[in-house]
Amino acid sequence: MTDAPQKHDDHARSDGAGATTAAHPLDGHLGFILRRAQLGVFQELTGIFGAYDLRPAQFAVLKVIEARPGISQSEAAESISVKTTNFATLIAQMEARDLVRRETSPTDRRGRMLFLTPGGQTICRDVTALWADYERRLTERLGGDDARAALVAMLKALDADTPS
């Protein structure tokens, strides 16, 4: 019996302990690395927020409304880069959970203003503490405050929507 031929991997790398692991062919591409990092962070946040049955997008909505009570639904959607139609569904789900409430704008009967309910305020406060702890751990993984500040500056340079 003969052994199967070994595949040659042009993308192999050492793991530092002498073993060779296959690298992904896109590992050196910024867009791919950024997307993988974003997916990893969101997966970790989803686990952290899981006890509150909250997704990262819902947490972002809570934080936006907390910072700007009465913000219009369209402004809130724009601030977290969510399409208005998708945002309406998100708000309806959060309203059904009694996290947010909508009021008709006194200046535009078609517009809706967003507010946190008492339950939404409590969850926002509790989850903000978990989020702050996670942010501290991320900062440590990056190498400290200076590395975090440098990364934030670089990411903002890539974000066309971020004011300079």
UniProtKB/TrEMBL annotation:
UniProt KW keywords: DNA-binding
Domain called HTH marR-type: residue spans: 27-160
GO biological process, one term: response to stress
Residue ranges crossing the lipid bilayer per the database entry: none
Residue spans of biased composition, Basic and acidic residues class: 1-14
Region (Disordered): 1-21
Record-linked SMART domains: HTH_MARR (SM00347)
Gene Ontology MF terms: DNA binding; DNA-binding transcription factor activity
PANTHER family referenced in this protein's UniProt entry, alphabetically: HTH-TYPE TRANSCRIPTIONAL REPRESSOR YETL (PTHR33164:SF43), TRANSCRIPTIONAL REGULATOR, MARR FAMILY (PTHR33164)
Name of the protein in its database record: DNA-binding MarR family transcriptional regulator
